Amino acid sequence: MDRRGFLGAGMAGAAALTFSSVWSQSTPNFGAPAAPAVGFKRMKLGAMEVIALNDGALRRPLGEEFVTNAPLEQVKALLASQGLPTDYVDIPFTPFVIVAGGRRILMDTGFADNGPPSAGKLVANMAAAGLKPDDIDTIILSHYHGDHINGIRNKAGQLVFPKARIMVPAPEHAFWMDDARMEAAPPAMKGAFQNVRRVLAGLPADQLVRFEPGAEVAPGITSVAAFGHTPGHTLFTVKSEGQSFAYVADLTNVPSLFARSPDWSVTFDMDKEMARATRRKIFDMIVKDKMMAGGFHFPFPAFGSIEAAGNGYQFKPLA
To answer: Is domain 3-317 annotated with CATH 3.40.1110.10?
Structure first.
């Protein structure tokens, strides 16, 4: 993969979910996204359990820049055909915990107190589900955008999950920790590189563990390369007693748009062509293998089934 391409136009879009530029786009004219009445949802998976945990949501006005390769009117028409608002999109944030025997494995972390006022609800929803931060023994990260990693540390710099080993995709880590690449990045993106250092620098080697996508990161949990959204974007499949679940992270930010029209490109994808190819490949796998699927930005409870629909796919949430 030619990672020099990731320092092009996609970098500006990638910054949006990391720093304050996106919060300023959230206007009170459209109100605030509704929080789920219960901020967690459990699903049995063989001998394991998958718990979706809402960290909040962001309401973003829908403009020409959001879908980069389709006219805004076409985007609005697709939303309207599904009975959805056309002036804005809601972007939820949902980490997942895998309960496997005595282990508690957190997939991505949300914001902690480093994000918009409508986010940072993970720890409270964990408590409602009977989980404490100290219960988490492992964190596995899909990629290094701020909404996925900022929950590792609070604003004061303290670790939110002090007992957790943090497992990260090696190509993602190599990209964002490259000082020369940070120096060459556009000014708007330098903060994203600095944020990665704020969160992850200084962790001891036995706490920050790199893996190559394709490796098994825990018994029954396998990493899958899903590059495009970021240089090392990685998803995870979980299998137990013949049942399977795919955590697809940011394969699609808004499934009502980018699952239904998987060839459309969201502004946050850093290599849009690669992301489109990855999206179809992964969704085809999920449909073919009849896997349950969960996405970080899927409507809560953020997991359910994926079905073929027209030229794309449809997400059906678990009831």
So the answer is: no
